[in-house]
Amino acid sequence: MDLSLLERFEQDNIVVEKLDTLINWSRANSQWYFQFGLACCAIEMMAAAAPRHDLERFGAMPRASPRQSDVMIVAGTVTLKMAERVKRLYEQMSDPKYVISMGSCANSGGPYWQHGYHVLKGVDLVIPVDVYVPGCPPRPEALLQGLLELQKKVMTETPLRKQVV
Amino acid sequence: MDLKGIFEIIKSIDGVDLDLESNFISVSPASLLELADKLKNDRDLEFDFLMCITAIDNGDSKSFTIVYNFYSNKHSHSCEVRAQLALEEEIPSLSDIWKAADWHEREAYDMMGVLFNGHPDLKRILLPQDWEGYPLRKDYKVADYYHGVPIPKDKSYWE
């Protein structure tokens, strides 16, 4: 179903849907992101949150604590020293939790790919990643699209059904 | 004051020499403290600002060059001092004379493994404390793992 339920309220203010969809709908549109940045990507993330691009249009607002966050935007170069902290912060987030890997460094090590002795070659080596946003650094529009892709992914989930592993 | 004038004042110190080709003053590690004291306190020099400390691996895995850049805010002149250092040889710390030397020396220790004698807290400044090796040395080899996290060096890791 579409993210926007508004059109379906037109007739008599009643919409019939699965409870899964309702939960997904609320989750997808309140993706509070963890406010931390590691390098120049963080500047673009700030620009995305600032009024011109305005991430809060999509219900995403920065939280300064991992315990209140739903999505971690790994914005920047993850050094090996920081990798342990990133992992610990991810583990402190409460479920359901998602990760957006922003920029070439977080995706694959980026320009530090070959000679960066101290750089983690992709944040997916330590935490699971839902959406990869390419770019060096990605423009705010790219991060916005990454967030929209994450919302699409959330909408496909079935939180009330037992997970078959 | 130009470099020649500065050298005229300090040339009485042992092991101090002038290189006019590259415009620096060379000094032996043993006389570094004496030279530093003179640079800081002589009324005609008064180098009150230590701008930078650089460590250079000379490429033979046996010796380093430590470069100090000084500036005097009072006289608006500057000079460059270099000291040659063998592997594992210690060089006196200048952190008692210029506070700025403290972190610069820690960085030189962190990246090159240069040992500074008399430094108040000589430990790594950027890398984790348990890091092995000194990464800016020419003969440094990147480890395969750090705390269980792989450090892939080429595409074959993913193939």
Q: Could you name the key traits of this structure?
A:
heterodimer, A: about 160 residues, alpha/beta, 5-stranded parallel beta sheet, about 35% helix, B: about 160 residues, Beta Polymerase, domain 2, 5-stranded mixed beta sheet, two-stranded parallel sheet, 3 helices, about 20% helix, about 30% strand
Concise overview:
Chain A is of the alpha/beta class. Chain A has five helices and five strands. Chain A is globular.
How would you summarize the topology of this molecule?
The complex is a heterodimer of chains A (165) and B (159).
Chain A: H1 19-28, E1 33-34, H2 40-49, E2 62-63, E3 71-75, H3 80-92, E4 98-102, H4 103-108, E5 131-133, H5 140-155
Helix pairs in contact in A: 1-5, 2-5
Chain B: H1 3-10, E1 17-19, E2 24-27, H2 32-41, E3 49-57, E4 63-72, E5 77-86, E6 90-92, H3 101-112, E7 115-117, E8 145-146, E9 149-150
Order of helices and strands of chain A: HEHEEHEHEH
Percent of residues in helices of chain A comes to 25-40%
Proportion of residues in β-strands of chain A: 5-15%
Q: Helical percent range of chain B?
A: 10-25%
Number of strands of chain A: 5
What is the mean predicted local confidence, pLDDT of chain A? 87
Topology as H/E string of chain B?
HEEHEEEEHEEE
* Total number of helices of chain B: 3
Would you mind describing this structure in some detail?
The complex is a heterodimer of chains A (165) and B (159). The radius of gyration of chain A is 17 Å and the shape is globular. The longest helix of chain A is centred in the C-terminal third of the chain and has 16 residues, at 140-155. Chain A has helices at 19-28, 40-49, 80-92, 103-108, 140-155, and strands at 33-34, 62-63, 71-75, 98-102, 131-133. In chain A, strand 4 (98-102), helix 4 (103-108) and strand 5 form a beta-alpha-beta unit. Chain A is of the alpha/beta class and 165 residues long. Chain A has a 5-stranded parallel beta sheet. In chain B, strands 1-2-5-4-3 form a 5-stranded mixed beta sheet. In chain B, strands 6-7 form a two-stranded parallel sheet. Chain B has one domain (3-158): Beta Polymerase, domain 2. The mean pLDDT of chain B is 89. The longest helix of chain B has 12 residues, at 101-112. Chain B starts with a helix and ends in a 9-residue tail after the last strand. In chain B, strand 8 and strand 9 (149-150) form a beta hairpin. Chain B is of the alpha/beta class and 159 residues long. The chains are: A alpha/beta (165), B alpha/beta (159). The A-B interface holds A 80-81, 83-84, 114, 117-118, 120-121, 125-126 and B 127-128, 135, 140, 142, 146-147, 149-154, 157.
